[in-house]
């Protein structure tokens, strides 16, 4: 199944998202410069060598973007609005060359009071590296279409 509709979510279900994404130096540099982040620990190896990590650190907002993307297939393929990310935590750094994976657990699912064609789903998502070390966690809520509603992809 590609994507879930509101009716497909059950509280407590866990999805291990099927893809991983290895972060390249180009990914990190381009994303950092595209978003105008001037912290040199993301794009200046000489500068980064003098930090506690001793090497380039992956931009944390790139980590958010990658983990969000990894989760789309399972939790937001049929969403039409993100309502928010809460309690974003980054317990461990991500470095160039790390491969990021993700899993999500359904925390709540309720009908929308204002949009009868949708429901509100909240999931806890964790991103982890190739060694199984958690690198990011959050709660995310989104409006998800009910089956038979919303646009149809051709």
Automatic annotation (TrEMBL):
This is Acyl dehydratase. SUPFAM superfamilies: Thioesterase/thiol ester dehydrase-isomerase (SSF54637). GO terms for molecular function: lyase activity.
